[in-house]
Specification:
- By secondary structure, the protein is of the alpha+beta class.
- It has one domain (4-266, 301-390): Chorismate synthase AroC (Chorismate synthase, AroC fold, 4-Layer Sandwich), CATH 3.60.150.10.
- 33% of the residues lie in helices and 18% in strands.
- It has helices at 31-41, 50-53, 83-86, 100-106, 119-126, 132-138, 143-159, 184-192, 201-216, 246-255, 351-374, 379-390, and strands at 4-8, 15-21, 58-60, 64-65, 68-69, 74-79, 163-171, 174-175, 223-230, 260-265, 283-285, 292-294, 302-303, 306-307, 312-318, 329-331, 338-340.
- Strands 8-7-9-15-10 form a 5-stranded antiparallel beta sheet. A 4-stranded antiparallel beta sheet has the order 1-2-6-3, with helices on one face.
- The relative contact order is 0.17.
Length: 395
């Protein structure tokens, strides 16, 4: 049994579409399960004006009947409310305008790439002279559908006692060192109360100030967010082949998110600077006969490509967004002249939102590995298999 999904749609197109296959039959799933996470994706100080336009109302089109999944592919749709203002620009049928200048204006054609964006490389790859053809699909708007699909995976994991939460660790040069003092299943409630989704109140105010300063300067800010999962069974993933290692798939999923330039598990890069005695997690007899326990979790819940049963801890570094209100220099691809980069509606900082998206990415990966390990076409089978596995011990 495996899980796979696809998304489709452009940023200012008519809608975003998604399909996910492999979800077992019998999973309780209703519209509200998806919508609550889509609302959370819109959170965060520093978001742009489009968040006030789009409601991100998701429709479940297929694969669910009377609140239960059928085991067949689940199809989702999110209509773009902003489509009304862009339907001529993003029309499917050819335009009838003959004058080239008028045609470019009507299409809001883009010929000046933004440094750090997909604009230029995408234009070269697909031979697009109008970079809007690149911008529309490479936009982070696509992540709304990934959150919707990830919400299904989250619901599946919750039924198995696996919970995921996230927080912001850094924005710009401001770092939040506050420890996590609540169970993972309560982490989001605590973090969502902060405008920047961090735990420390002092760090919250400093991050807000940094975002305001960047906004006044016409600049943007990136940062680091952390996603954690509890209740993960031992043995997801494998050491036997490179593409079956759990952290390899997690890294691929997180690096597929717009603007992510680095991913680490557990101590991550800090482990390279410390001796082994301060990196590895010692193993002791557990309180229950036949079980073992760890007193630290420096590995972030993964050893040798497999889950250890400890909480998974994944961090991702997000670069500042590439659309600047005071743009960097670029080149007009039609004239060859140096000119300020194109400006498209954007955010000053999207790290809090990226953390929520990261939850969905981790959920999709974990759901895939759970199904591969435990199997089962129905929730009854999967729940039984997971419970049987948790009751088995090596010693």
């Amino acid at each position: 049994m495996s899980l796979r999904f696809l998304t489709a749609g452009e940023s200012h197109g008519k809608a975003l579409m998604g399909i996910i296959e492999g979800v077992p039959a019998g999973l309780s799933l209703v519209h509200a399960d998806l919508q609550k996470h889509l609302r959370r994706r819109k959170l965060g100080y520093g978001r742009g004006s489009r968040q006030k336009i789009e409601t991100d109302e998701v429709q479940i089109l297929t694969g669910v009947r009377h609140g239960k999944t059928l085991g067949s592919p689940i199809g989702l749709l999110i209509e773009n409310r902003d489509w009304i203002s862009w339907q001529d620009v993003m029309a499917v049928e050819p335009t009838e305008v003959q004058d080239p200048d008028q045609k470019r204006a009507r299409a809001r054609e883009i010929s000046v790439p933004r440094p750090g964006h997909a604009d230029w490389a995408g234009g070269v790859k697909y031979r697009h002279s109008d970079l809007r053809n690149v911008l529309e699909r490479s936009s982070a708007r696509e992540t709304a559908m990934r959150v919707a699909l990830g919400s299904i995976a989250t619901q599946f994991l919750n039924e198995l006692g696996i919970h995921i939460g996230s927080r912001v660790v850094e924005i710009g040069k401001i770092r939040d060192d506050a420890p996590i003092e609540v169970p993972i299943h309560e982490l989001n409630t605590q973090c969502d109360a902060s405008p920047v989704r961090c735990l420390g109140s002092e760090a919250t105010q400093k991050m807000i100030q940094a975002i305001e300063e960047a906004k006044k300067a016409g600049d943007t800010l990136g940062g680091v967010f952390e996603v954690c999962a509890s209740g993960v069974p031992v043995g997801l993933g494998s050491y036997s082949q490179w593409d079956r290692r759990l952290e390899a798939e997690i890294g691929r999923a997180f690096l597929s998110l717009n603007a992510i330039k680095g991913v680490e598990v557990g101590m991550g890069f800090q482990a390279a600077r410390a001796p082994g005695s301060q990196v590895h997690d010692e193993i002791f007899p557990g309180a229950v006969p036949g079980q073992i326990e760890f007193k630290t979790n420096r590995s972030g819940g993964i050893d040798g490509g497999m889950s250890t049963g400890q909480p998974l801890v994944v961090r991702a570094a997000m670069k500042p967004l590439s659309t600047l209100m005071k743009p960097l220099s670029s080149i007009n691809l039609r004239t060859g002249e140096v000119t300020p980069a194109h400006i498209e509606r954007s955010d000053v900082c999207a790290v809090p939102s990226a953390a929520v998206i990261g939850e969905s990415l981790l959920a999709l990966v974990l759901a895939q590995f759970v199904l591969e390990k435990m199997g089962g076409d129905s929730m009854e089978e999967v729940v039984r298999n997971v419970q049987n596995w948790k009751n088995w011990h090596l010693i």
